[in-house]
Amino acid sequence: RMVFYMRAIGHAGARQYLATCDSRVEKCLARLLGFSTDKLPAAARTQATLPVRLGGLGIRRSADHWHSAALAASSSNYALCCRLDKKFVWDQEGWSQTATAYNESTSPNWLVCSRERPPRGLEQRSLSYGIVTATHNRLLDESDAVDKARLLHLQLDYAGAWLSPQLERDNAIADTPYKLLVRSRLGLPLYKQAQGVIAANKS
């Protein structure tokens, strides 16, 4: 549903609603991991949005990818709109604003030209990968040596195999061990420092 919303309402005004949804998802994750504040540290929240292959949990932020969806939808729909309506007028201003917002968030290799007509062949998956790459690089740059080593280790083959849906169906991991695994993956403490008990036991 969120992908449809991003593709259908392709303008910056939709971002505040997407951000609200993202915030609720992040609060839910924090509660599942035993955080009473309903808020994870910023670095952990960012890491969780990365794909599993890059050390994350695959919980993508809609507010970070709305322009990817909007640009891809415009690219695929422009020719059809012109065929259906000979008097179709392209929203050049909206396209330029969306392309500019995307270019400010993505890696240099994924920049989109804000020209008169949308280029054909833009795919949402490819555009989102540019956002993911930029987010991953920024997270590495802002991490200390220990966290950087942890993040790079999580990119090794099978490092996230336990997050596979197939594994969850065939060999479900109990709640507390699962919480501990996720905490460890996100670089979060496994124990409450004051009481010395496993924080994940509290749900």
Please explain how this structure is put together.
This protein is mostly helical. The chain is 56% helix and 0% strand. The protein has nine helices and no strands. The protein is elongated, with a radius of gyration of 20 Å. The C terminus is likely disordered.
Keywords for this entry:
9 helices, 203 residues, 56% helix
Summarize this structure briefly.
56% of the residues lie in helices and 0% in strands.
The geometry reads as elongated
Q: What ranges have pLDDT less than 50 throughout 5 or more consecutive residues?
A: 193-203
**Count of β-strands:** 0
Give the end-to-end Cα distance, rounded to a whole number of Å.
Answer: 29 Å
Q: Roughly what fraction of the amino acids lie in strands?
A: under 5%
- Alpha-carbon Rg, integer: 20 Å
Largest sheet: none
- Provide a count of the helices: 9
The arrangement of helices and strands along the chain is HHHHHHHHH
Percentage of residues assigned to helices: 55-70%
Mean pLDDT: 81
Secondary structural class:
mainly alpha
